[in-house]
Amino acid sequence: MKARSSATTPKALNGQCTCGAVRFTVSDAFEYAMNCHCGKCRRTTGSAFKPMGGIARAELALTTSPDAMFLYGDATTHDAHCRICGSMVYSQVRDAQYAHVPLGVLTDTPSIRPTHHIHVGSKAPWFEITDDLPQYQEFD
Ligand SMILES: [Zn+2]
Ligand SMILES: [Zn+2]
Question: How many A from CA of 66 to the centre of ligand 1?
Answer without folding.
Answer: 12
